[in-house]
Write a structure and sequence with these properties.
By secondary structure, the protein is an alpha/beta fold. It has a domain at 395-491: 2-Layer Sandwich (GMP Synthetase, Chain A, domain 3), CATH 3.30.300.30. It is built from 15 helices and 26 strands. The strands form seven sheets. It has a seven-stranded mixed beta sheet. The longest helix has 17 residues, at 33-49. The chain is globular and about 65 Å long.
Length: 492
């Protein structure tokens, strides 16, 4: 049982103050653990001066930068709740989230200054704190307080693709166990260098690797935004050892000329956010990379599974077993465990489950029952306890009474040499109820009818899309995943 918040930044500042905690890939700016400790202390003083106390929300609107981690650590020390906002949202959406979480202050960078002032114009009770020059006139505080495990460390808003964004309450307890689970699952060491380019308003950017790396005393190399060729240069130049990305990003890295760069330093590649297409998985495994699929979500983990490197070949396509401090099962519609290999709903449990939805606890209680969080994702479990993700329950559609899992159809399409990207959604049909619509980005000229024939030779008839549409690009959400809601809306 943990009794309070462990200040791992302070611990590393004392044990190895010279170690580099953070490096900005674009500017070369560096924070050692001693620097990060001191500057976080300055932010504690700055925020306290603005009236922030334990339990208050500290909203943040900024592009990826080192200062975000300084503010985050300060919030952990204060017992305040770090609340990063999605800068891709519209002004009205940002104002709505501010109304929902009622932050004491809004910290912002120079790029987002105008929109931060827009939020404050609607909510004048919110104090604005610019990042630029914020630490020059204050002195760091060194008094640390241990906060109870259920103190809220973060309030992370979901993307809202299925409705109004929900604020997921992430307590210190969840952060601690996710750090611990990730450390063991990825064998993180103090000499590791993690490349972080996922947006830091998202749990994937903060919690998948960045915070666990800092917990271990490793180095986080930060990119302002993902750009494939720049990422490959950084991997080669900085001797990056781990990174995490979504499948579309791994596809972009291949297309940007992966083989032209020295990437031998990489010992772990984590892939999450969506099922990894088999052709993409094979392309990375064929090059000898330790390419490990995972599964996580803001509400649980986010790191929930571990696939040991020595099992990658034998358990190809699985996300592995449940992490050390975690549990997983597959249940049917009545809540009963299914037999090995049978598709059901993936349910997760353990100390890395969140505390609920901010102001919307009935919605959380509807999906967190009997100690299991019902993910809404479909999966199978084999006889050895290895899990394979079949896709989102909401993505599955029923055609003529048969279940169709888009990930399976997408894998077939991606096996065609002319197909670069593919996404399948269910659309209404007067005869079959729903049928598949495939949207394809081609790497070379191809006839949609030829792609339908390719599917017909490899899939049961009810799984074959009724129509294939060629597109220049697929719509992506803030975390780089294909936005199937937008896709369905634009082609229905």
């Amino acid at each position: 049982m943990i009794t309070g918040h462990a200040d791992f930044v302070r611990q590393w500042a004392m044990a190895a103050p010279w170690r580099v905690a953070l490096r900005d890939a674009a500017t070369g700016e560096v924070r050692t653990y001693a620097d990060l400790d001191a500057r976080a202390g300055c932010w504690v003083t700055r925020l306290a001066y603005m009236g922030v106390t334990a339990g208050d929300r500290v909203a943040l609107l900024a592009r990826n930068c080192i200062e975000i981690f300084e503010v985050l650590v300060a919030c952990l020390r204060l017992g305040a709740t770090f609340t990063p906002l999605n800068w891709r949202l519209a002004q009205a959406e940002l104002a709505d989230i501010a109304a929902d979480c009622t932050p004491r202050v809004l910290v912002h960078d120079r790029v987002e200054a105008e929109r931060a002032h827009g939020v404050a114009s609607v909510h004048p009770e919110v104090g604005l704190v610019p990042m630029d020059g914020a630490l020059e006139a204050v002195h760091p505080t060194h008094h640390l307080v241990a906060h109870p495990p259920e103190t809220l460390a973060m309030l992370l808003y979901t993307s809202g693709t299925t409705g109004r964004p929900k604020g997921v309450m992430v307590p210190h307890r969840q952060v601690f166990f996710n750090n611990l689970n990730t450390l063991y699952a990825c064998e993180l060491g103090g000499e590791d260098r993690v490349l972080a380019f996922l947006p830091l308003f998202h749990t994937g950017g903060i919690n998948c690797l960045a915070l666990p790396a800092l917990y271990r005393g490793a180095t986080v190399v930060l990119m302002g935004a993902f750009e494939a060729e720049s990422a490959l240069r950084i991997i080669a130049d900085q001797r990056i050892t781990l990174t995490v990305a979504v499948p579309t990003m791994y596809q972009m890295l291949l297309e940007a000329g992966l083989d032209r760069y020295d990437t031998r330093s990489l010992h772990t590649l984590l892939c999450g956010g969506a099922p990894c297409p088999e052709p993409l998985l094979d392309a990375w495994l064929a090059r000898g990379f330790c390419f490990r699929q995972g599964f996580g979500m803001t509400e649980v983990g986010p790191n929930c599974f571990s696939l040991p490197p020595w099992m990658i070949g034998r358990k190809r396509g699985t996300v592995g077993q449940a992490v050390l401090h975690g549990a997983a099962t597959v249940l049917d519609a009545e809540g009963r465990p299914v037999a090995p290999g049978v598709v059901g709903e993936l349910c997760l449990g353990g100390p890395h489950v969140s505390a609920g939805y901010w102001g919307r606890m009935p919605e959380f209680e509807a999906v967190y029952r009997d100690g299991w969080f019902h993910t809404g994702d479909l999966a199978t479990e084999d006889e050895e306890g290895y899990f394979r993700i079949a896709g989102r329950q909401k993505d599955m559609f029923i055609s003529g009474g048969e279940n169709v899992y888009p990930a399976e159809v997408e894998n077939i399409l991606l096996g065609h040499p002319a197909v670069l990207l593919a996404a399948v959604v269910g659309v209404a049909d007067p005869r079959w109820g729903e049928v598949g619509l495939a949207v394809v980005v081609a790497r070379s000229a191809v006839d949609p009818e030829a792609l339908l024939a390719w599917c017909q030779a490899r899939l049961a008839r009810f799984k074959v899309p009724k129509r294939v549409v060629l597109a220049e690009a697929l719509p992506l959400n803030a975390s780089g995943k294909v936005d199937k809601v937008a896709l369905r809306r634009s082609h229905s």
